[in-house]
Amino acid sequence: MPDSVKMGNRSWLKGALARRPFEVIQSVRTAHVWGNQVEEYFKLHHRFSADIEAETEAALERLDPSAHSVRSKVTALLKSQEMKYPLSVLPLLVHAVEAGAPGPAVPLAAVHVLWWTSACYLDDLADSHGANGPADLAVQEGLLAAMVTGHILPVKVLDSRRIPEPVRPALAAEIRDCWVAAAEGQLGDMCGEIGASPRSSVVATYRGKSGAPFGMITAMAATLAGRDAERILLWREFGFIFGILWQIFNDQEDITSGRNEDLLNGTVTYLLACALDDAPPAAGEHIRDLHTAARTSPVARAALADLLLSPSVLARYEKDINAFRDEAYRILSELGGDEQYLPVLRQLVDQASGLLL
Predict the structure, then answer these.
(1) 59 close to 110: Cβ distance less than 8 angstroms
(2) Positive or negative, the Cα torsion across 253, 256, 262, 267?
(3) Taxonomically, which superkingdom (predicted)?
(4) Per-domain boundaries in the chain
(5) Contacts of 130 (CB under 8 A, 6+ apart)
(6) Within 13 A of 66's CA, how many CA atoms are on the CB side?
(7) Who's near 142: CB < 8 A, 6+ residues apart?
(8) CA torsion through residues 301, 304, 308, 309, sign
(9) pLDDT of 207 higher than 60
């Protein structure tokens, strides 16, 4: 999973994030992507980062008193994983749009961080590159820590005094359902197979592996705000679409960073799908052959990269990105809400929708 998906900063415990100056938090931005338009977003992150950290620590304290090793390994995992963008603020924004106040959704921000900490570690293992944990955290220990971090601690967070008891079952159900949908998407991603309709197949995969966690957290925030089923459904769909945009953003950063992990892993990205969908049969077969060979051949990787970055492919890519962006805007317009916070969500969508290539 490209580094840009690693949202926020995982140095949560012992006040590390809370003590970091706002300028340091701002510095994690990619300069050409995160500009002054989302200044309020980072201010909101700075305002609530200590509270999010406290909810994470409280969830750890709710584990059985005898679970000393579990606490130690989970803490090591949380400390070791640094996230680039603080998208843990997303549930705060959704709740603020619905109810005028971001604070009550702080536990959900902690859920979001815990979920992604676990998912990123597991994704690293699935990619066979080894997880980015500390040297004293063995892979097997990291795997167990990731399971607790992503599956158990989010439910423990829901015991927070900030969460009314009547909504806890619905919030827990969102977490369970998300893991199933995300696993389905991730399994589709891991198989590396190119379907008969590449773009449609990739969208289905992206809706699962990235859309599901965003859909989970936006639906949870709307549920916590006491909204009805129809609005919760709309917020979940917004999360799905935003997750697709964010995955495409991740894909682009993988290329612009020079890592090209997707080519090495044989990942079927949306950019690849655009190249295949618009290619004549013979050219499409050539692209498929390069995609297979790119796992082991630097020459094939370079040739495939050149094809993917051709003007015609990028034009299709940009057109589709704009369509996803417009759908996210449409949903936000239909939802409406507090005008102090709704523009921040719109700007976040806009920043996630840029063509970086």
Answers:
(1) yes
(2) positive
(3) Bacteria
(4) 3-352
(5) 124, 139
(6) 0
(7) 73, 77, 121, 125, 131, 133
(8) positive
(9) yes
**CA 71, CA 153: separation in Å to the nearest integer?**
11
User: Secondary structure of 268-330 in the HEC alphabet?
Assistant: CCHHHHHHHHCCCHHHHHHHHHHHHHCCCCHHHHHHHHHHHCCHHHHHHHHHHHHHHHHHHHH
3-state secondary structure of 117: helix
Compute the distance between CA of residue 207 and CA of residue 215 in angstroms, rounded to an integer: 9
Structure tokens at 56: 């994470």
pTM: 0.87
- Between CA 348 and CA 92 the distance in angstroms is 13
What sign does the CA torsion over 243, 9, 184, 247 have?
A: positive
Q: Are 63 and 84 in contact (CB under 8 A)?
A: no
pLDDT, one tens digit per residue, over 215-260 is 999 999 999 999 999 999 999 999 999 999 999 999 999 999 888 8
CA–CA separation, 18 and 11 (whole Å): 10
- pLDDT digits 0-9 by tens, 93-131: 999 999 999 999 999 999 999 999 999 888 877 766 554
**Sequence-distant contacts of 23-29: CB under 8 A, at least 24 apart:** 25/49, 25/86, 28/84, 28/85, 29/85
CATH class held by domain 3-352: mainly alpha
pLDDT at residue 43 in the model: 85
Rounded to an integer, what distance in angstroms lies between the CA atom of residue 246 and that of residue 65? Answer: 38
Instruction: State yes or no: pLDDT of 19 exceeds 90.
Output: no
b/e per residue 135-168 (b: at least 16 CB within 10 A):
eebeeebbbebbebbbebbbbbbbebebbeeeee
